[in-house]
Amino acid sequence: MKQNRIITMALVAAIAATTTSCHIYKKFELPEEGLAGEVAEAQKEEIDSTSLGNVAWDDMFTDPQLQALIQIALDNNVDLENARLNVEIANAQLLGSKLSYLPSLSLTPNGGTASYGGSKITRDTWSYQIPVTASWEIDIFGRLLNTKRQAQSAVLQSEAYQQAARAQIISGVANCYYTIVMLERQLQILNETADIWKQSIQTMQDLKEAGRYNEVAVVQSKANYNSLLATIPQTEVSLYQAYNTLSLLLNRPYQKWDVDTAYEPAFPEYMEEGVPLKYLAARPDVKAAEQSLASAYYATNLARTAFYPNLVISASGGFTNLLGSVIKNPGEWFFQLAGQLTAPLFNRGQNIATLKAAKAQQEQTLNNFEYTVLSAGAEVSDALVAYTKNKERAVNLKAQVENLSKAVEYNNDLLKYGTATYLEVLTAQQSLLSAQMSEIQCLLEIQQSAISLYQALGGGR
Fold first, then answer.
1. Which GO MF terms does the UniProt record name (predicted)?
2. pLDDT band at residue 6 under the 50/70/90 scheme
3. What is Dmax (Cα atoms) for the chain?
4. Mean pLDDT of the region 156-165
C-alpha cells in the first residue's frame, strides 16, 4: 500500500513538472536577438582550418630558439599550471553533480540493554539493529539536472581560461623574445656607430691641425660621441629587464637566453580586410564568457526549482532482534520504504527574491558577454591595422636608412675635400642613427602586431 502511495506521489509531481516547469529542462542557447544572436548564427558556420587562429604555435613561430623557449614556458609556467588545476577542480565538481543522481547509502549498527529494579543484565536483555539506509532524490523538477549542467559549463569555462592562459604565455614569450632581438640589434648598431664616430673625432682633429676647421668642430663631434655613449648603458638596462621578464615567464632565475638576432621571422599570410564574426566566436575569452552566461542561465533555472516540491524516497533494511517492544533471539530481517514530498509554503517571498536576483545576474552576464565580443573585435581590428600600416612604414624606413647611409658616405668624402661643413657631417650621422633605430623598432612593432593578431584570433594551440 505504501509503495502505491509513493508511486502516486511521483506521478502527481511528474504531471505538475511537465505542465508548469518545461523551461527548467531546456538546455542553454544564446539569445536570438542582438549581438548574441549574431554570434549564435556565426557559430553555425564552419571555421577554416587554415585560418590564423587555428595555426599551431610552432608553425606560427618557426625560429628554433624561440620554439625551445616557448616549450619551456608551457612546461613550467605557474599561471598555466594553475589553469590546468582549475580544470581538474571543475571536473571533480562535475563528477560530484553526476553522482548526486545516485542514492546515498549508510550503515548505522547500534545496540543496547536496560536494567530495571536491579534486575540482572543477561543475553536476553540485549537489543541490536544492523540497518542499511538508502535515500534517493527523484529529480522531477530539474534541480539535479540544472546543477549538473551548471557544473558542465564550469568545466568548459575553465578549459577556455586554460586555453586563454596558454595563448597569453605563448604570445608573452614571443613578444619578449623579439624585444630582446630588437634591443640586441640596437645595441650592436650603437657600438658600431660609436666606433665610427670616434674615428670622426680623429678626422676633425686632423683637419683642425691642418687649419681647415677650428676647435668648435672637434668639441661638437666629441659631444655627439658622448651622447651616443650615454645611450648604450640605457639600452643595456632595457635589455637586462627584458631577459629578466623572459626568465619569469619561463619560471626560471635570471638568465641571458640564446636568441638569434640574424633570424628574420616569416609569418603566415594575414587577412587584409575585416574578420568574420565566426573567428571571434572561437576565441577562448568569448567561449569563457558564453559559458559564464550558460552558468547564469542554469542558476536562474535552479532558482525556479525552489518553487516546486522535492520528492525523496527512503528505504532501510537490515537485521534486528528488537520487534516492537519485544526482544527476540535470534533476530529477523526487516525492510522499510517511505516517500517524502516537501513543498515550500512560507518561504515563497525568499524564493521570489532569489529568482529576481538570478535573472538580474543573468542579464549582467549577457551584457558582459556582448562586451567581450565587442572587445575581441576591437583587438583584432587594432592588430590588423597595426600590422598593415607598420609594414608600409617599414618600406619607407628601409629606404630612408639606405639614402642616409649614402649621405653620410658622401659628406665624409666632401669633408675631406673641404666642400662640406662639419655640421652637415654631424647632422647626417645623427639622422642615420635615428633612422636605423626607428627601422629596428618598426620591425619589432610588425612582429608584435602579428603576435597580437594571432592571439586576438584565438591562436595558441
1. efflux transmembrane transporter activity
2. very low
3. 137
4. 90
In angstroms, rounded to a whole number, what is the distance separating the alpha carbons of residues 278 and 46? 8
Instruction: Report the relative pairing of strands 110-112 and 127-138 from DSSP bridges.
Output: antiparallel
Q: Which of 16-20, 103-107, 109-113, 449-453 has the lowest mean pLDDT?
A: 16-20
Which band of pLDDT confidence, cut at 50, 70 and 90, is reported for residue 327? Answer: low
**Greater confidence, 38 or 445?**
445
H/E stretch holding 37 reads helix 34-43
Written as nine digits, the cell of 101 is 543522481
Domain ranges of the chain: 33-102+142-309+350-456
The C-alpha atoms of residue 293 and residue 371 are separated, in whole angstroms, by 12
- Mean pLDDT (whole number) for 184-194: 94
The span from the CA of 200 to the CA of 381, in Å, is 47
Count of C-beta atoms within a 10 Å radius of residue 454:
25
**Direct distance between the N- and C-terminal alpha carbons of the chain, in angstroms, rounded to an integer:** 61
Q: Which residues are CB-neighbours of 110 under 8 A, at least 6 positions away?
A: 128, 129
Residue 33 neighbours by CB under 8 Å, 6+ apart: none
Domain 33-102+142-309+350-456 has CATH 1.20.1600.10: yes
Question: In sequence order, what DSSP letters do the residues of 232-253 get, joined into one string?
Answer: HHHHHHHHHHHHHHHHHHTT--
Exposure of 150 in the CB half-sphere (CA atoms within 13 A)? 18
3-state helix, strand, coil in the chain (%, to 5): 70, 10, 20
Residue-averaged pLDDT of the chain: 81
> Is the pLDDT score of 404 beyond 90?
yes
**Which residues have a Cβ under 8 Å from the Cβ of 186 and sit 6 or more positions away?**
235, 437, 440, 441
